[in-house]
Amino acid sequence: MNPAWPAIFPLALLPLIFHWMPLWRRNDIWFGVTVAPGYTDGPEARAVLHRFRIAVWLLALAAVILAALAASTYLPWALPVAMTLEIGGALAAFAYARRQTLPRAVRPGPRSASLTAAPEGLPGGIAAALVPYVILGAAALYLAINWDLIPRRIPVHWDFIGAPDRWAERSWQSVFAPLLLGAIHTGLMLLIALGILRASPRGRVAANAAATAQFRRAILQFLVAAVWGMSLLLAAFALIPRSQNSLGGLPQILILGLLALAVAFIWRIIRINRTVASGGDGTPDECWKLGFFYFNPADPAIFVEKRLGIGYTCNFGNRTAWLALVLILLVGLVPVLLRYL
Predict the structure, then answer these.
(1) What does each C-alpha distance from 229 to 113, 126, 177, 195, 261 come to in angstroms?
(2) From residue 7, how far is each of 2, 11, 86 by CA, in Å?
(3) How far apart are CA 121 and CA 130, in angstroms?
(4) How far is 172 from 185, CA to CA, in rounded Å?
(5) 340 Cβ contact list (under 8 Å, min separation 6)
(6) Nearest residue to 167 via CA among 154, 176, 149
(7) 209-239 helix and 250-273 helix, angle to the nearest 10 degrees
(8) 10-residue block means of pLDDT along the chain (341 residues)?
């Protein structure tokens, strides 16, 4: 099968995400701009949203046509161009909508500069951080004990429906790679959670402090739950060779479970963001470049709440944030490095 055909599905799914993304926001934030209460329900704001959505769907139509062209004529350049067109075009449309909204910007409420408030901790404490490593370690111990029972050739990659499509000779790299990746990614996600706990703004806008705390707590709970689910999933894939290359539908069940978990948390966070007392976290509008890059060297925060989408993003004006980005990049190179060890 031409690999371009399966790519049409995510290309068709992305506009649904972009269509609703401007509404995944705090109250009184519209396309990354702090606006007066009630403005977002007015005709001017709705007209900006309408134009943005028209642009998103036209770009999606063009991207799907390009992807279909790549699938039918085997043009290698069409698929990356289609993906770039859809994602880049949607971000450009967002930036244009933000530019249209900027004349209606207002100053946020009174601010303080503190990054700390009441003491907070990782949901579940140290046990929550250790459980993923216990799962991965137990799978690694089981494989080590049963090494001679692992087939000489094992699957190392799976397609969209969970069927193996790439095989390799049995070696420590091929057998333990999913568990090693799980351990590294678990550590990285827990470091991000620690960064959100210790280096994200809180209490800057007193009227929004309670909603900000609820938002942060929900994000941290999602990170912990996602790490647990990811560890279970990678352990399941690592055990497939020992179980005659099949664990029934367990990997698919875990994937569906992770998707359901994400949907549940996204819905919860949207509800928190739409409460009356939920506004911005006090970051200045002028420091948001194009509406989704935060650059403020005067702000000691490393992570701040996103104004496009849900969650946190880095303060690109903080040098420590760049160290975190380099670490993420290095983690992304681990699968490549494992092939050469």
Answers:
(1) 36, 17, 17, 21, 9
(2) 10, 6, 13
(3) 15
(4) 19
(5) none
(6) 154
(7) 170
(8) 58 83 82 87 94 93 79 68 86 92 78 55 88 93 86 70 69 82 87 88 76 86 89 84 56 75 82 67 84 89 85 90 80 61 53
